[in-house]
Write a structure and sequence with these properties.
single chain; mainly alpha; Arc Repressor Mutant, subunit A; globular
Length: 150
């Protein structure tokens, strides 16, 4: 195998996003908006700063996207009770059928992507990729401390 694991993971994720975008094109919601809605479905009440970090977008870009989704009735902003300057984001009922559709499309796509893999191989793949994600999610100070302890 001549490709590095980083290239393979990145390219697979790119192909997955492209196919999911194609399957969801009829919804009129962009891929980045889908990611935002999916994140909120798991982290409702999050603030815009955390969401911008997760989506890896500039705050102004996120603000415009949130404005459009709020105008279309997909989500709402509510004042943060702990910080008058901040807003917390919540899904509205209108977004729930779309999120359900997105989940179903993502599940079907994952099934297609894993065709030919046994149940044990699927479990092992998920475990190994999760371990890689955890390794990369650690802060540099966490990594330095674990290396010093070794």
């Amino acid at each position: 195998m001549s490709e590095t694991i980083g290239f393979l993971v990145h390219d697979t994720a790119r192909l997955f996003r492209r196919e999911l975008n194609e399957r969801m094109r009829h919804s009129g919601v962009t891929a980045l908006q889908w990611r935002l809605l999916a994140y909120l479905a798991r982290n409702e009440g999050t603030n815009q700063v955390k969401l911008a970090e997760f989506l890896e977008v500039e705050p102004i870009t996120l603000s415009r996207m949130i404005d459009r989704l709020a105008e279309s009735g997909m989500l709402s902003r509510r004042r943060d009770p702990d910080d008058r300057r901040a807003w917390r984001l919540y899904l509205e009922a209108k977004s729930l059928p779309l999120i359900d559709e997105l989940r179903a499309a993502a599940t079907q796509l994952a099934e297609t992507a894993q065709e030919g893999l046994s149940t044990a191989e699927r479990a092992q793949l998920a475990e190994l990729v999760e371990r890689m994600r955890q390794n990369l999610s650690r802060k540099p100070s966490d990594i330095a401390q674990s290396e010093q302890a070794a």
